Amino acid sequence: MVEISSDVIRGYNDTMILSILLLEPSYGYEISKQIKTITDGKYIIKETTLYSAFTRMEKNGFIESFTVEKDMEGNGKKRTYYRITEEGRKYYESKCEEWELTKDVVQKFIRR
Amino acid sequence: MVEISSDVIRGYNDTMILSILLLEPSYGYEISKQIKTITDGKYIIKETTLYSAFTRMEKNGFIESFTVEKDMEGNGKKRTYYRITEEGRKYYESKCEEWELTKDVVQKFIRR
DNA sequence: TAAAGTACTTCATCTGTTGAAGTAAATATA
DNA sequence: TATATTTACTTCAACAGATGAAGTACTTTA
C-alpha cells in the first residue's frame, strides 16, 4: 500500500482544513473525520498535526475560534469551533493557485 | 507571481534529483541548472537543499559519489558526481506511485 | 459497569529547508 | 593582464511543521 509521507502533504494540511471551513465552521474531531471521508480513507490527518494547525492558523489570522458547550440538541462534549476569516479565504485561494503550479512542476520529474 | 513554498516541494526534491540521475550520473551545479531548465525557471532548487539532499541520499544508499578532476575535454573544476543505485531506483519508483495518490488526495480540497 | 468514542492538550523530538558566510578554481570580459 | 563572473562546492546554526507519547475528561453505547 502506498502511503503519503508527511513531507509531501506538509504544505497542504492547512489548505485541506480551510477548504472544509469554507462551507461552515467546524471543529477538530469533525474535520478529521471529514478529511478521512473525502479521501476515502487515503489520508488520515494526525491529531497533533490538526490541532497545531489550528493554533498556527489562528495566530496567522486565517481562522477564528469560538466555544460551544452543547450542540443544538443538547448533546456532545464542549467543542472549539473554527471559522475561516477573509484572510483565510485569500490564503486558501493562493494555495489553490500554488497547487496548480506545483502539480506541473513535480509532474515533469515523474516517469509515466 | 505564484511561488512554490518549501513545505510543498519538501517531499519531492529527492525525487527530482533522482529523476535526473536516472539518465546518467551528474553533479550538483549541473543538476540545479537542469531543474531550472526542465521547469522553465518555475522552480530553482537552493544550493543548500541540493547538497544536503546528496548527503542524505548517499547515507540512505540511493546514490553513490565519485570524483572527477576534469571533464572529458580537460575543462572545468573538480566535481563530485553522483550515480543512482538500485535502491535509489526503487525509491524513485515508489515516490512516483505516491505522487499519483497525493495528487488525487490534494485535488479533492482544491476549488476549481 | 465497562468499553468505546468524543474532544481535545502538552511536550519533547525529528527532519528537511534555508540563510549567511566562506572557499577557491576556471573562465569570460575589459 | 587585471577584474568580474561563473563554476562548484562546504559548514553551520536556526527554523517550522509533523509527530509520537502520554495524559485528561466527558459522553455514549454495549
At a glance:
The structure is a homodimer of 112-residue chains. Helices cover 53% and strands 12% of the residues of chain A. Chain A has helices at residues 6-9, 13-21, 28-38, 47-59, 86-107; strands at residues 26-27, 63-68, 79-84.
Give structural notes.
The structure is a homodimer of 112-residue chains. Chain A contains five helices and three strands. The first copy, chain A, has 112 residues and is an alpha+beta fold. Chain A has a single domain (6-107), classed as Arc Repressor Mutant, subunit A. A three-stranded antiparallel sheet of chain A has the order 1-3-2. Chain A is globular, with a radius of gyration of 16 Å. The model of chain A has no long low-confidence stretch (mean pLDDT 93). Chains A and B meet through helix 1, helix 2 and helix 5 of A and helix 1, helix 2 and helix 5 of B.
